[in-house]
Amino acid sequence: MYALSTRTFELGNQVPFARANGLRDCAMPILSELYAQTGHVVHLAVPDGPAVLVIEKLYGPESVRVGTTVGMRCPGNATALGRAILAFSEIEPGGATPAQCDRPTASTVDIAMLDTTLEQIRQRGYATDFGEAFLGISCIAVPIVDRRTGRPVAAMSLSARAEGRSILRYRARMLDAAEQVSDHVGSGEVA
Fold first, then answer.
1. CA 160, CA 190: separation in Å to the nearest integer?
2. Radius of gyration (Cα) for the chain, nearest Å?
3. CB 77 within 8 A of CB 96
4. Alpha carbon 124 to chain centroid, angstroms
5. In angstroms, what CA-CA distances link 115 with 77, 149, 174?
6. Neighbours of 82 (CB within 10 A)
7. ∠ CA(40), CA(87), CA(63), 5° rounding?
8. pLDDT digit string, tens, across residues 54-109
């Protein structure tokens, strides 16, 4: 029988965004502040093909239960995190096949509407998800951009119980948080 060892954990933490002074370390004070101010679940994710890879998650005893874990891949088209990245990347979502576009719930944007949805995200600067990835959960996400290239390198999100569109009250705070992390990424501070 084989099992993962602590060496595997060490190797995993050598990935650039997980290293000391990497994206995760750079974003952590801002993610922590978001959690402290809102009490809602905070995620940080990076692009991984047509999906996003969750690299950090903050939550507490009063936070809604979201079915995500660090290291989990989530469909890019079905999550606010993924769409925040897709909208500002050079990927052509209109060329995606139905197999690449997961629909975890009946509310998930279908492939025919994806281009329109991404254009709306580009115009307002943030993505939303109202029960599209997880029933009963609302999410707002913003891209983190490398200032040198202008491309998204990650996204951060805030998730809460779906209560109408109340998650939108955090949009200014989320946009500001993304600017703060993007400033660090673009300054060369992030290894």
1. 29
2. 16
3. yes
4. 16
5. 10, 23, 23
6. 27
7. 10
8. 999 999 888 888 888 899 888 888 889 998 999 998 765 444 444 445 555 545 56
